[in-house]
Amino acid sequence: MIRNVLTIAGSDPSGGAGIQADLKTFAANGTYGMAALTALTAQNTQGVSAVEWVPSAFVAAQIKAVFDDVRVDAVKIGMIATAEIARVIADALAVHRDIPIVLDPVMVAKGGASLLAEDAITALRDALLPLATLVTPNLPEAAQLLGRDEATDRAAMADQVRALADLGPAAVLVKGGHLAQPDSPDVLFAQGQLHWFDAPRRPGKNTHGTGCTLSSAIAAQLAQGADIATAVDVAKRYVTGAIGAADALSVGRGHGPVHHFHTLWKD
């Protein structure tokens, strides 16, 4: 049986991040993708120039429409934009605690533009983190959620992943892509245990949407019955391959997208 995965996130018209990346990732990982929009962005590989938030009631209506008709096997939450949207998502998913929920706390675009209103950070922390099966912040996001300085080594990453787990999610994956070192380590804290996932840092600028892609790949794996550690391992290897194959694409003049279909398309 093909599993169904819902993304609740913003749109990227250039196709590299947001729901566009999520839907590609779901398909590449063998699942059927659905999407509820939280925001419209005007962006491309060079940055974000404008954001329009979807009214919270309409976000709730989209989610309800999906659940009223379709079996949902996992949910990925990305850009939430506002505190109101965070709360309606939490309300909509509170009755679906039996399915995996992967929360990617999107706060800042790769080009530096803020994608999350200030008052939404508290709502995300208080309303959505406790619902999450897994939360997947990068180092700046982890620091912002905790009100701490950004981790600069593995010891600080391990400390922050445990502190985030204290906020209520079942498991936390802190991504180490911002570390200034040759490799790119991620650390998972699940069921009281630390698990490290290492990968070589790939040279190149085509890394737009890697966070969206990783969290969506994890959600797809969880929907298909994988445990959290296995889902993270498979997803990280998928993203590493997608980054490595990104030069096969010719999209934009800035931070280009990863190659979501690198295992399926032939040159």
Please, could you describe this protein's structure?
The chain has 267 residues and is α/β, with parallel strands linked by helices. The protein has a domain at 4-136 and 213-248: Ribokinase (UDP-N-acetylmuramoyl-L-alanine:D-glutamate ligase). The chain is 37% helix and 19% strand. It has helices at residues 18-28, 56-69, 83-93, 118-128, 139-146, 154-165, 210-223, 228-244, and strands at residues 4-11, 32-44, 47-53, 74-77, 101-103, 134-135, 171-175, 186-190, 193-197. A six-stranded mixed sheet has the order 3-2-1-4-5-6. Helix 5 (139-146) crosses helix 6 (154-165). The two termini are 30 Å apart. 51% of the residues are buried. The mean pLDDT is 92.
Name some characteristics of this structure.
single chain; 267 residues; alpha/beta; UDP-N-acetylmuramoyl-L-alanine:D-glutamate ligase; 6-stranded mixed sheet; 3-stranded antiparallel sheet; 8 helices; 9 strands; 37% helix; globular
Low-confidence regions: none
| Strand order, largest beta sheet | 3-2-1-4-5-6
Shape descriptor reads: globular
Number of helical stretches of at least 4 residues: 8
The H-level CATH homologous superfamily of one domain, spelled out, is Ribokinase
Cα radius of gyration in angstroms:
17 Å
Residue-averaged pLDDT: 92
Short note summarizing the structure:
With 267 residues, the chain is α/β, with parallel strands linked by helices. It has a domain at 4-136 and 213-248: UDP-N-acetylmuramoyl-L-alanine:D-glutamate ligase.
